[in-house]
Amino acid sequence: MRITCTILTARQHSGSGGNTLRPDLRSAATLGVSVLALASIAAPSLARAQDTDERSAEQAREKADGEFLGTIDIGESTRAIRTDTATPITSINREEIEDRQANTIAELIDSIPGVTIVNGSTPIGSGINIRGFGATGTYGTDQKVLVLVDGATNGSEELYRIGTQLFTDPLLYKSASVLRGTVGSFEYGSGVIGGTVILETSDAYDYLGGKTGFTVNQNLSGASNGGGFATSTTLAAMPSENVEFLANYSYRTSGNQEDGHGERIENSAFSLPSFLVKGAVHFGADNAHTLKASFSQTTTAERDKPYDSFGTTGGVFGNVDRDTKSRNLVVGYYYEPLGTDAINLSLVYTRAQQDIEQSYIPYSSPVFGEVGTPVTDADQRYVTSKVTLKNAALFATGSVRHNLRVGLEYIDKDRLDASSAPGGTDRRMAAFAVDEIGLFRGFTVTPAVRWETSNVKGELDDGSNASYTNEGLMGGVSARYELPFGFSVFGSWAKTRSMPIIDDLENVAYMNQPEKSRSWEAGAAFDRTGIFTPNDRFAIKANYYDTDLTDNTSYSGVAEVYLEGVEIEASYATPSGFYLDFNGNIVSGTQLSTGGALSDWGNLPQNTYQLALGKRFGDHLDVRWEGVLAEDLDTDGTVEQGYDVHNLRASFSPEVGFLKFLTFRVSVENIFDTYYVPALATRPALGRNFKGAVSVQF
């Protein structure tokens, strides 16, 4: 991505009302801002933008209707580093989503520091681990990582040997963000220790650039390893500025994949059809009122496949036929009047539902004899509905500036009773407030608080009913100070509680024992243009974190967990197109057993370092090499071997004649066909994989 700053002059034009200035230039002309002053202000401001299209110069020229004087090109790397906040957050935009051609969300975000994937090349038996918490090889999740799709909570159930069940297609989304740790999580949920994954589906507005009309976007891709194929078709329409509509159908499939030794990776074949429909209506004065609605669905069918999606039990559970359907519904009302910054109101209803229908195939285990029922012959369904009322307000109290977000939330989880996944209801009420306070120039402090109460009900094995109520007050504070030359320091402290869950209804002690977590972080960042050459850009952010989990109920035989680590993100880019991206994750951790013994944390990921070197040739060609290095991991004498993997990627946009609508992408992942099994994974990673994609929009 390259940032292009456009320099324009304010020019009068004639109209029915006489000579006037366009509103967006009137204030500049009134104050007598010169072209040079405007450029000096715009350049550093735009340099901090996260997602600026290279063709924004032409668009800005048309909008301003002024005289075009030239552009300033500022180097920018593949992914923006958020040096402007104390919160450790990394975002992947739509362009990178298409470049990476990932099969799953886990595979898409595995290049973010602190994120470790479990079997990420397939949606079946995969999961996401952040900072040592999240997916495990026994249950799909430990409730310490939150996944939101347009605000709807997904993939959050502990389903024995099945996985997180986060079935969705990456091409449905315009962005994927990972907010690591606890301090930034309080407006999204409780019990978040590893982090929060925030997915936002595409809008018609994005495809059309805010202009009225109709467009079609088609993406086709294929992969050599497993004979993978994916197609994604999007129709976007804005018949007027008040109405927008989008429809997408995506289909992704793969045969059994192969590892670096050329051996078949069992249970890696899948087919994944998905669709999304989304619309919005804007009305009222200045279109201040908006109604939005979206519905998405993803399904998958497994026939005669192992019940154990992780493949860790040697087939003792036998095989099943399993159909999974995941659905998300989001309906929202938004009010943002132009006359005040104190109101940015939203009232949103979300419903995430997943149905798993499975039947076992009769099988006689040499260990357990006849298996299949009741564990493997159980249908499962869980529904999480939420109503969230939130307002964001910008205001000042004297010289102190505030960006205050407050909200109320009602959460209703309803789960069908099934063997190994007890049924019941979990109803919660929550209130939260986050206030970003600018005390003086360069210094910001952000306190956050969340209060939540939960009531879990269900029927016990003996036929009696049980009900447990818990509540907790949690929160934290972060602070950041930035010096004028681009250097900043920051730190944070936070505590949260994980409320008891439906799975533990039979355990009275666990149902009265919310898990507690405390974490603190500290770091520094530097972001500046013109370091070595005019208009080059260098950015770096390093963050140290220390996290303790106590009163544990999620991990058998473990009383407490202690983790600490360092995350690093850095980038350098020149206006001529050369760029470099680096990130690293160094982590260590121990666990205290219920018997009082200390040992290495069992879900510890490897230390990893990722480097990308690339070159852009104008607006047409982008070529880069990526390398991933993972260190050996020794946990109490058990060594997970380190590895290094290399990838090549290129994208080409001809932008001439009828080809100007096309973008071609090719890549080779794991160039040297390296065999490796990442820590936390339960099966080998993919061997060499050639990928190709073409996208067109007209």
Structural topology:
Layout: E1 3-9, H1 23-30, H2 35-47, H3 56-64, E2 67-74, E3 89-93, H4 94-100, H5 105-108, E4 115-118, E5 127-130, E6 133-134, E7 145-149, E8 152-154, E9 173-180, E10 195-201, H6 204-208, E11 213-223, E12 228-240, E13 243-254, E14 270-283, E15 289-306, E16 319-335, E17 345-361, E18 363-365, E19 369-371, E20 380-397, E21 400-415, E22 424-440, E23 443-459, E24 465-482, E25 487-498, H7 508-511, E26 515-529, E27 537-550, E28 558-573, E29 578-593, E30 598-600, E31 608-617, E32 621-630, E33 633-635, E34 638-640, E35 643-652, E36 662-669, E37 689-697
Parallel strand pairs: 7-10
Antiparallel strand pairs: 1-2, 3-9, 4-5, 5-6, 7-8, 9-10, 11-12, 11-37, 12-13, 13-14, 14-15, 15-16, 16-17, 17-20, 18-19, 20-21, 21-22, 22-23, 23-24, 24-25, 25-26, 26-27, 27-28, 28-29, 29-30, 29-31, 31-32, 32-35, 33-34, 35-36, 36-37
